[in-house]
Amino acid sequence: MASIIESGWLYLITHFNDFQLACLGSFFLHESVFFLSGLPFIYLERAGWLSKYKIQTKNNSPEAQEKCIIRLVLYHLCVNLPVMIASYPVFRFMGMRSSLPLPSWKVISTQILFYFILEDFVFYWGHRVLHTKWLYKHVHSIHHEYATPFGLTSEYAHPAEILFLGFATIVGPAITGPHLITLWLWMVVRVLETVEAHCGYHFPWSLSNFLPLYGGADFHDYHHRLLYTKSGNYSSTFVYMDWLFGTDKGYRKLKSLKGSENEVEGKQI
Predict the structure, then answer these.
(1) Rounded distance between C-alpha atoms, residue 152 and residue 158, angstroms
(2) Cβ(242)–Cβ(235) under 8 Å?
(3) pLDDT in tens, 68-113
(4) Which of 38, 91, 141, 257 has the least C-beta neighbours within 10 A?
(5) Distance between alpha carbon 206 and the CA centroid of its chain, in Å?
(6) Residue 57 — φ and ψ, nearest 5°?
(7) What burial class does residue 134 get, using C-beta atoms within 10 Å of its C-beta: 0-12 exposed, 13-18 middle, 19+ buried?
(8) This prediction's pTM
(9) Where do the domains of the chain lie?
């Protein structure tokens, strides 16, 4: 398996230069993973399939979904791509490389774990600041246009927010100067995580059912349903910051009440 990956990587670095791989390659990878993972939830919602796993009964109109897609393409081309190009010198300066040999899985997994921890910390405070009155009204309210989120709404936001919270995602790699393959893997898992958190469905196989402190769709959907002053649940992937600062109390109370109701219904049956 390792030799296959190395052979594929050798092909890439011999046919494309570092700038093409780090900027254009990263952009293409991001767009592919994002839309291929996010679009199916639009069709699930329209077709009504797996509706028993849908967190909210309300559906988005086709017009609202199409508006989201059009703006996302615009944001990605006009914000994300230029940021990737502008960030290239910084990552090169910090030691990012694309050459062989590839880093070991131990190095890759350790770095990605560090990125998750740091991203959760930075994102929490950035997100919480965005829920102050002025910033919410003028910036973050764009993201909250969709009270019933679906996968693609994860990156539907004001350009200023894209830059503001995007910093949380790139600060870890910028510090460590990883191999490009580590950066790509981090980007893939981060995109898949945020799409899942906004998908609007809580499945029996959802990671939040098995992974301690993992937020997931049910946790983040609560954040979208409530008014900005009362929402809480500001965390990104893992919810330790909300737990530490008590900003998930409303959500935990609701989960406790639902659990009690289910227990009573089970006894009656």
Answers:
(1) 14
(2) yes
(3) 999 999 999 999 999 999 999 999 999 999 999 999 999 999 999 9
(4) 257
(5) 15
(6) -80, -25
(7) exposed
(8) 0.94
(9) 4-201
